[in-house]
Design brief:
Length: 128
């Protein structure tokens, strides 16, 4: 069982930056590919970013490419999402997710169904 706890959300003005953190419990964090997703009010949950176990591969959605950096510190059991040049349309609840299998990660990293552990989410609100 893995527990994920996100933090770092809040209210920020357009053009600002935020760094979200996701702390994971357990000793197997380093074996899990990780992802960040977001869900705006009334919309489906969508992919934001993903990172492999060794950080050798990272992905950012087209909607945030150039403004997004995902990283992880396996010694601290933590994955980070840095978002810059924030826009009002980035307003959403941001979730981190863990893929305990990792088998299909390279093909399915952008799919919610690829991840079997989820945090409770952290609200990010970007004001114009």
């Amino acid at each position: 069982q893995v527990q994920l706890v996100e933090s770092g959300g809040g209210l920020v003005q357009a053009g600002g930056s935020l760094r979200l953190s996701c702390a994971a419990s357990g000793r197997t964090f380093s074996t899990y590919p990780m992802g960040w997703f977001r869900q705006a009010s009334g919309k489906e949950r969508e992919f934001v970013a993903a990172i492999s176990t060794s950080s050798s591969s990272t992905y950012c959605a087209d909607s945030v490419k150039g403004r997004c950096t995902i990283s992880r510190d396996n010694a601290k059991n933590t994955v980070y999402l840095q978002m810059n040049s924030l826009k009002p349309e980035d307003t959403a609840v941001y979730y981190c997710a863990a893929d305990s299998s990792g088998i299909y990660y390279s093909r399915n990293y952008y799919k919610t169904t690829n991840y079997n552990y989820w945090g409770q989410g952290t609200q990010v609100t970007v004001s114009s």
